Amino acid sequence: MNIARPAFLKLTDKVNLRYQKSGDGPPLILLHTIRTQIEYFRSLAPLLAEKFTVYAVDMPGHGFSSVDTSQQYDEPYLRWGIAEFLKTLDLRDVTMVGESIGAVIALTVASEVPERIKAVYAFNPYDYETRYGDGIRRGNGGWEGLHEHASRRASVAATQREPGDHQRRREPAHDWHQLAAYVSVGVQRPRTPARERVRRRHREREPLLRAARTAHSLARPEPRQHVMLRL
């Protein structure tokens, strides 16, 4: 199996994305969760590399990819970064695999460049909202500290230091073999009887929950007026 060292792909003068390429076969992109990096997939990538050419990518502002302080790191910006990654490497018939926010970006990139996408596997998609960009800002120590943070990360990347224990602990406790099997054979996650019962209960309860929320909002009392008397 061919596993290359992590490399950087220059998109603009301010944006460089770190990625790691492994395996041989049709291209597959791995997109990680919020505030993690390509090492998140250290156990999954080798399994998929048996049938795909795997590109595990640090999304913009994550891992060792560059930080552009003029950006808000909202969904359109992250989508642009991954779409440009595909265009720069001229990848086609791509299988997109993402988890959490990576799943959302995989789906939106597929809508942005559908001519380059073959399939999308979105695991545990994150409900994207405006606060996510602020979460990246806080995770990177605030905009005022980003320059120092980026410089420190660049110096670490230059030494090719292996991920530390704090990064290894962030690897999820997934059954990566099962997930890789879903992607490799091109099937959806099987619906077990237990999962179907849960889905059916949610469908049955949704009208009641919606009616209860409406009734609660209508019955909400007006805020009390407090009057302070000085004696």
Short structural description:
The protein has 231 residues and is α/β, with parallel strands linked by helices. The protein has helices at residues 45-48, 75-89, 101-112, 131-139, 146-158, 165-168, 176-185, 193-219, and strands at residues 7-10, 16-23, 27-31, 53-57, 94-99, 117-123.
What CATH first level of the largest domain would be assigned?
Answer: Alpha Beta
**Biggest beta sheet attributes:** 6 strands, mixed
Q: At the fourth CATH level, what is the homologous superfamily of the largest domain?
A: Alpha/Beta hydrolase fold, catalytic domain
The number of helical segments is: 8
What is the alpha-carbon Rg in Å?
A: 22 Å
Given the C-alpha coordinates, what overall shape results? globular
What can you tell me about this protein's structure?
By secondary structure, the chain is an alpha/beta fold. The protein has two domains: 7-185, Alpha/Beta hydrolase fold, catalytic domain (Rossmann fold, 3-Layer(aba) Sandwich); 191-219. It is 41% helix and 15% strand. The chain has helices spanning 45-48, 75-89, 101-112, 131-139, 146-158, 165-168, 176-185, 193-219, and strands spanning 7-10, 16-23, 27-31, 53-57, 94-99, 117-123. Strands 1-2-4-3-5-6 form a six-stranded mixed β-sheet. The longest helix has 27 residues, at 193-219. The radius of gyration is 22 Å and the shape is globular. The relative contact order is 0.13. The model is unreliable at 139-171 (pLDDT under 50).
